[in-house]
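Support request, please re-run this one:
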Amino acid sequence: MLKSRNREGDPAGICFAAIATGESIINRFYDNYGKAFRAQVLQQWSILVGLIGTLLGLTILVQKQKD
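Re-run finished. Output below.
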């Protein structure tokens, strides 16, 4: 059976430190880029479809002028 040790005895202390480090990294990402995680999917897809449509239209226009 595995015994967990206190923070001075290492294994559990290292585990707690690793978890705390990981949580701080996640919190930093959420603080800096939280808006991206709360994005409105329908709105984002609409913008993407609009951009793709515009680029496709411009590509067709340029190709027709080139011929």
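DSSP finds two helices and no strands in the chain. The longest helix spans residues 11-37.
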